[in-house]
Design a protein that fits this description.
It is a single chain. With 119 residues, the chain is mostly helical. The chain contains 5 helices and no strands. The protein folds into 2 domains: 35 residues, no CATH class; 62 residues.
Length: 119
């Protein structure tokens, strides 16, 4: 990668993305790598309100509506996950929870069995 960056520096843009600690480690592996990425932007995790806005957008796109009780439960789940896990405040968590709930609903509607576990 470093050779390609040097050989194509006038017409190449590389964007790296990842968690802060892992990215710091990656950039320290090669002594010249950090200097080749002079711009660093850190984005904070989403708040619970922002995660709920993302959930609403995902649900609306799929033509789903959360009941008030389901909305409360999703807020609790998001709050619990973001408190327990350092890197949980992102849209992937919301997508995974929504998709898992949709799978459980589909199985329930066709009368199948759902494996144990929380939605």
């Amino acid at each position: 990668m470093v050779a390609s960056m040097e050989n194509n520096k006038d017409n190449l843009i590389i964007i790296l993305a990842g968690y802060q600690e892992e990215m710091d480690y990656f950039l320290e592996i090669n002594p010249g790598l950090r200097s080749r990425f002079p711009i660093h932007i850190t984005f904070p995790d989403y708040s619970i309100d922002e995660l709920m806005n993302i959930a609403d957008l995902m649900l609306n796109q799929r033509q789903y509506i959360l009941s008030p009780l389901a909305r409360e439960e999703l807020i609790k789940m998001l709050d619990n996950q973001t408190r327990r896990h350092e890197h949980s405040g992102n849209a992937r968590l919301v997508r995974n929870l929504i998709e898992r709930a949709m799978r459980h609903q589909a199985v329930r509607l066709v009368g199948g069995k759902i494996s144990p576990g929380k939605i």
